[in-house]
Protein backbone atom coordinates (compact mmCIF):
# COMPACT_ATOMS: atom_id res chain seq x y z
CA UNK A 1 0.00 0.00 0.00
CA UNK A 2 1.37 3.42 -0.99
CA UNK A 3 1.84 5.77 1.95
CA UNK A 4 1.44 9.35 0.73
CA UNK A 5 -0.97 12.29 1.14
CA UNK A 6 -4.11 12.77 -0.91
CA UNK A 7 -3.61 13.32 -4.63
CA UNK A 8 -5.75 16.48 -4.41
CA UNK A 9 -3.36 18.01 -1.88
CA UNK A 10 -0.34 17.11 -3.97
CA UNK A 11 -1.92 18.56 -7.12
CA UNK A 12 -2.82 21.77 -5.32
CA UNK A 13 0.67 22.14 -3.86
CA UNK A 14 2.41 21.51 -7.21
CA UNK A 15 0.24 24.17 -8.86
CA UNK A 16 1.00 26.69 -6.09
CA UNK A 17 4.76 26.08 -6.40
CA UNK A 18 4.56 26.50 -10.17
CA UNK A 19 2.43 29.66 -10.11
CA UNK A 20 3.77 31.11 -6.85
CA UNK A 21 0.19 32.27 -6.32
CA UNK A 22 -2.84 30.68 -4.60
CA UNK A 23 -5.41 32.39 -6.82
CA UNK A 24 -3.71 31.34 -10.05
CA UNK A 25 -3.41 27.77 -8.80
CA UNK A 26 -7.09 27.78 -7.81
CA UNK A 27 -8.08 29.00 -11.27
CA UNK A 28 -6.10 26.22 -12.94
CA UNK A 29 -7.67 23.58 -10.69
CA UNK A 30 -11.15 25.13 -10.99
CA UNK A 31 -11.58 25.44 -7.21
CA UNK A 32 -11.71 28.35 -4.76
CA UNK A 33 -8.74 30.18 -3.25
CA UNK A 34 -9.82 28.89 0.18
CA UNK A 35 -9.95 25.29 -1.05
CA UNK A 36 -6.34 25.47 -2.25
CA UNK A 37 -5.22 27.05 1.04
CA UNK A 38 -6.94 24.24 2.94
CA UNK A 39 -5.22 21.58 0.84
CA UNK A 40 -1.82 23.16 1.51
CA UNK A 41 -2.58 23.24 5.24
CA UNK A 42 -3.52 19.52 5.21
CA UNK A 43 -0.32 18.70 3.37
CA UNK A 44 1.83 20.61 5.86
CA UNK A 45 0.08 18.82 8.73
CA UNK A 46 0.74 15.47 7.07
CA UNK A 47 4.48 16.22 6.70
CA UNK A 48 4.73 18.08 9.99
CA UNK A 49 6.65 20.97 8.42
CA UNK A 50 6.05 24.30 6.70
CA UNK A 51 6.07 24.02 2.90
CA UNK A 52 5.13 27.57 1.84
CA UNK A 53 5.38 31.08 3.12
CA UNK A 54 3.89 34.45 2.15
CA UNK A 55 5.98 36.90 0.13
CA UNK A 56 4.20 40.10 -0.86
CA UNK A 57 1.03 39.12 -2.69
CA UNK A 58 2.40 35.75 -3.65
CA UNK A 59 3.49 32.49 -2.08
CA UNK A 60 6.95 30.97 -2.20
CA UNK A 61 7.97 27.44 -1.21
CA UNK A 62 10.37 26.77 1.62
CA UNK A 63 13.49 24.71 0.89
CA UNK A 64 11.57 21.52 1.68
CA UNK A 65 8.61 22.72 -0.36
CA UNK A 66 10.85 23.52 -3.32
CA UNK A 67 12.26 19.99 -3.36
CA UNK A 68 8.82 18.43 -3.11
CA UNK A 69 7.39 20.72 -5.79
CA UNK A 70 10.16 19.89 -8.25
CA UNK A 71 9.62 16.13 -7.88
CA UNK A 72 5.84 16.48 -8.07
CA UNK A 73 6.21 18.52 -11.27
CA UNK A 74 8.21 15.70 -12.88
CA UNK A 75 5.69 13.10 -11.70
CA UNK A 76 2.66 14.99 -13.01
CA UNK A 77 4.45 15.48 -16.35
CA UNK A 78 4.85 11.70 -16.62
CA UNK A 79 1.18 11.17 -15.77
CA UNK A 80 0.19 13.82 -18.32
CA UNK A 81 2.33 12.12 -21.00
CA UNK A 82 0.80 8.72 -20.24
CA UNK A 83 -2.76 10.07 -20.51
CA UNK A 84 -1.99 11.90 -23.78
CA UNK A 85 -0.19 8.91 -25.31
CA UNK A 86 -3.06 6.54 -24.51
CA UNK A 87 -5.61 9.00 -25.84
CA UNK A 88 -3.62 9.70 -29.01
CA UNK A 89 -3.10 5.99 -29.70
CA UNK A 90 -6.85 5.55 -30.04
CA UNK A 91 -7.44 8.54 -32.31
CA UNK A 92 -6.16 9.61 -35.70
CA UNK A 93 -3.53 12.34 -35.44
CA UNK A 94 -0.47 13.26 -37.49
CA UNK A 95 3.06 12.47 -36.38
CA UNK A 96 4.26 15.86 -35.11
CA UNK A 97 7.98 16.57 -35.55
CA UNK A 98 10.07 19.69 -34.97
CA UNK A 99 13.62 20.22 -36.25
CA UNK A 100 16.05 22.86 -37.48
CA UNK A 101 15.66 24.20 -41.04
CA UNK A 102 19.23 23.09 -41.84
CA UNK A 103 18.43 19.49 -40.95
CA UNK A 104 15.15 19.35 -42.85
CA UNK A 105 16.55 21.03 -45.99
CA UNK A 106 19.84 19.23 -46.30
CA UNK A 107 19.15 15.79 -44.84
CA UNK A 108 15.50 14.91 -44.26
CA UNK A 109 13.70 16.20 -47.36
CA UNK A 110 15.88 14.30 -49.89
CA UNK A 111 15.00 11.07 -48.02
CA UNK A 112 11.45 11.60 -46.75
CA UNK A 113 9.79 10.21 -49.89
CA UNK A 114 11.18 6.78 -48.93
CA UNK A 115 9.39 6.84 -45.58
CA UNK A 116 6.13 7.97 -47.17
CA UNK A 117 6.42 5.16 -49.69
CA UNK A 118 6.91 2.61 -46.90
CA UNK A 119 4.18 4.08 -44.66
CA UNK A 120 1.60 5.89 -46.83
CA UNK A 121 -0.95 5.67 -44.00
CA UNK A 122 1.05 7.87 -41.61
CA UNK A 123 0.25 11.58 -41.75
CA UNK A 124 3.22 13.83 -40.90
CA UNK A 125 3.37 17.41 -39.61
CA UNK A 126 6.87 18.93 -39.88
CA UNK A 127 7.80 22.15 -38.10
CA UNK A 128 11.13 23.40 -39.50
CA UNK A 129 12.05 25.97 -36.88
CA UNK A 130 15.24 26.65 -34.93
CA UNK A 131 13.25 27.66 -31.85
CA UNK A 132 13.31 24.95 -29.18
CA UNK A 133 9.67 24.01 -28.58
CA UNK A 134 8.23 22.38 -25.47
CA UNK A 135 7.33 18.83 -26.53
CA UNK A 136 4.76 18.46 -23.78
CA UNK A 137 3.14 21.89 -23.94
CA UNK A 138 3.04 22.03 -27.76
CA UNK A 139 2.22 18.32 -28.11
CA UNK A 140 5.05 17.24 -30.41
CA UNK A 141 6.06 13.58 -30.70
CA UNK A 142 9.68 14.14 -31.68
CA UNK A 143 12.31 16.87 -31.84
CA UNK A 144 15.52 16.59 -33.86
CA UNK A 145 17.80 19.05 -32.07
CA UNK A 146 21.35 20.24 -32.50
CA UNK A 147 23.54 20.26 -29.41
CA UNK A 148 25.30 18.01 -26.93
CA UNK A 149 22.24 15.99 -25.90
CA UNK A 150 21.61 17.72 -22.57
CA UNK A 151 17.81 17.70 -22.41
CA UNK A 152 16.88 16.16 -19.03
CA UNK A 153 13.51 14.55 -18.57
CA UNK A 154 13.37 13.13 -22.11
CA UNK A 155 14.73 10.17 -24.03
CA UNK A 156 17.73 11.46 -25.98
CA UNK A 157 19.84 9.57 -28.51
CA UNK A 158 22.37 10.93 -30.95
CA UNK A 159 21.29 10.44 -34.54
CA UNK A 160 24.50 11.73 -36.13
CA UNK A 161 27.51 13.92 -35.38
CA UNK A 162 27.57 17.35 -36.98
CA UNK A 163 29.95 18.25 -39.77
CA UNK A 164 29.30 21.89 -40.58
CA UNK A 165 31.41 24.59 -42.24
CA UNK A 166 31.53 28.38 -42.17
CA UNK A 167 32.07 29.30 -45.81
CA UNK A 168 32.36 32.41 -47.97
CA UNK A 169 32.90 33.37 -51.59
CA UNK A 170 36.60 34.05 -52.35
CA UNK A 171 35.52 37.41 -53.82
CA UNK A 172 34.76 38.69 -50.31
CA UNK A 173 38.25 37.81 -49.06
CA UNK A 174 40.26 39.89 -51.55
CA UNK A 175 40.94 42.73 -49.10
CA UNK A 176 40.06 41.02 -45.79
CA UNK A 177 42.02 38.58 -43.65
CA UNK A 178 40.09 36.13 -41.48
CA UNK A 179 42.38 34.52 -38.91
CA UNK A 180 40.13 33.96 -35.90
CA UNK A 181 36.37 33.77 -35.24
CA UNK A 182 36.01 37.41 -34.16
CA UNK A 183 37.26 38.49 -37.62
CA UNK A 184 33.91 37.35 -39.01
CA UNK A 185 32.54 40.69 -37.81
CA UNK A 186 34.36 42.24 -40.80
CA UNK A 187 32.06 40.40 -43.25
CA UNK A 188 28.33 40.52 -44.00
CA UNK A 189 26.45 37.42 -42.83
CA UNK A 190 23.93 35.22 -44.60
CA UNK A 191 21.58 33.77 -41.96
CA UNK A 192 18.77 31.30 -41.92
CA UNK A 193 15.54 33.17 -41.27
CA UNK A 194 14.99 30.95 -38.21
CA UNK A 195 18.34 31.76 -36.64
CA UNK A 196 17.45 31.35 -32.97
CA UNK A 197 19.28 28.44 -31.34
CA UNK A 198 20.75 27.51 -34.75
CA UNK A 199 24.04 25.69 -35.23
CA UNK A 200 25.85 28.94 -36.03
CA UNK A 201 24.33 30.76 -33.06
CA UNK A 202 25.69 28.14 -30.67
CA UNK A 203 29.15 28.28 -32.27
CA UNK A 204 29.26 32.09 -32.12
CA UNK A 205 28.22 32.03 -28.47
CA UNK A 206 31.02 29.56 -27.71
CA UNK A 207 33.51 32.04 -29.22
CA UNK A 208 31.97 34.99 -27.33
CA UNK A 209 30.57 36.67 -30.45
CA UNK A 210 27.19 38.36 -30.01
CA UNK A 211 25.00 37.56 -33.01
CA UNK A 212 22.73 40.54 -32.37
CA UNK A 213 25.44 43.22 -32.40
CA UNK A 214 26.29 42.53 -36.05
CA UNK A 215 23.87 44.36 -38.34
CA UNK A 216 25.26 43.50 -41.80
CA UNK A 217 23.01 40.45 -42.14
CA UNK A 218 20.57 39.09 -44.68
CA UNK A 219 17.97 36.55 -43.50
CA UNK A 220 16.80 33.90 -45.96
CA UNK A 221 14.94 30.62 -45.96
CA UNK A 222 17.34 27.72 -45.49
CA UNK A 223 17.28 26.45 -49.06
CA UNK A 224 18.37 29.87 -50.42
CA UNK A 225 21.42 30.33 -48.20
CA UNK A 226 23.90 28.35 -50.31
CA UNK A 227 23.23 30.35 -53.49
CA UNK A 228 23.44 33.63 -51.58
CA UNK A 229 26.79 32.69 -50.02
CA UNK A 230 28.16 31.49 -53.35
CA UNK A 231 27.03 34.74 -54.99
CA UNK A 232 29.13 36.72 -52.51
CA UNK A 233 26.34 38.15 -50.35
CA UNK A 234 28.06 37.12 -47.13
CA UNK A 235 29.57 34.41 -44.97
CA UNK A 236 27.35 31.64 -43.64
CA UNK A 237 27.05 28.11 -42.29
CA UNK A 238 26.31 25.03 -44.40
CA UNK A 239 26.61 21.25 -43.95
CA UNK A 240 30.16 20.27 -44.94
CA UNK A 241 29.17 17.49 -47.32
CA UNK A 242 27.06 19.99 -49.31
CA UNK A 243 29.95 22.38 -49.97
CA UNK A 244 32.91 20.08 -50.67
CA UNK A 245 32.56 20.38 -54.45
CA UNK A 246 32.27 24.17 -54.21
CA UNK A 247 35.41 24.31 -52.06
CA UNK A 248 37.26 21.99 -54.44
CA UNK A 249 36.26 24.18 -57.43
CA UNK A 250 37.26 27.39 -55.59
CA UNK A 251 33.69 28.70 -55.56
CA UNK A 252 33.72 28.75 -51.77
CA UNK A 253 36.37 28.99 -49.06
CA UNK A 254 35.99 27.16 -45.74
CA UNK A 255 36.96 29.57 -42.95
CA UNK A 256 36.13 27.42 -39.94
CA UNK A 257 34.69 24.01 -39.20
CA UNK A 258 31.90 23.66 -36.66
CA UNK A 259 32.65 19.99 -36.08
CA UNK A 260 32.48 19.56 -32.33
CA UNK A 261 33.28 16.73 -29.94
CA UNK A 262 31.65 13.32 -30.14
CA UNK A 263 28.63 14.53 -28.16
CA UNK A 264 27.85 17.45 -30.49
CA UNK A 265 25.44 16.73 -33.29
CA UNK A 266 21.80 16.05 -34.11
CA UNK A 267 19.79 14.21 -31.48
CA UNK A 268 16.43 12.49 -31.36
CA UNK A 269 14.49 13.86 -28.39
CA UNK A 270 11.17 12.34 -27.35
CA UNK A 271 9.03 11.88 -24.27
CA UNK A 272 9.65 9.04 -21.84
CA UNK A 273 7.11 6.26 -21.61
CA UNK A 274 5.16 4.25 -24.16
CA UNK A 275 5.86 5.33 -27.74
CA UNK A 276 3.00 5.77 -30.24
CA UNK A 277 3.23 3.19 -33.07
CA UNK A 278 3.77 5.81 -35.80
CA UNK A 279 6.67 7.34 -33.83
CA UNK A 280 8.27 3.90 -33.42
CA UNK A 281 8.16 3.39 -37.18
CA UNK A 282 9.65 6.82 -37.90
CA UNK A 283 12.47 6.34 -35.38
CA UNK A 284 13.35 2.96 -36.89
CA UNK A 285 13.38 4.49 -40.38
CA UNK A 286 15.62 7.38 -39.25
CA UNK A 287 18.16 5.02 -37.69
CA UNK A 288 18.27 2.86 -40.82
CA UNK A 289 18.65 5.90 -43.08
CA UNK A 290 21.50 7.23 -40.99
CA UNK A 291 23.71 4.13 -41.05
CA UNK A 292 25.88 5.43 -43.88
CA UNK A 293 25.15 9.14 -43.91
CA UNK A 294 25.82 12.37 -42.04
CA UNK A 295 25.10 16.06 -42.43
Automatic annotation (TrEMBL):
Pfam families assigned to the protein according to its UniProt record, in alphabetical order: HTH_1, LysR_substrate
Family statement drawn from the similarity comment of this UniProt entry: Belongs to the LysR transcriptional regulatory family.
HTH lysR-type domain residues: 5-62
The organism's place on the tree of life at top rank: Bacteria
Organism: Kiloniella spongiae
InterPro entries membership: LysR-type_TF_proteobact-type, LysR_HTH_N, LysR_subst-bd, WH-like_DNA-bd_sf, WH_DNA-bd_sf
Protein name: HTH lysR-type domain-containing protein
One BP term from GO: DNA-templated transcription
Keywords: DNA-binding, Transcription, Transcription regulation
GO molecular function per UniProt: DNA-binding transcription factor activity; sequence-specific DNA binding
Signal peptide: none
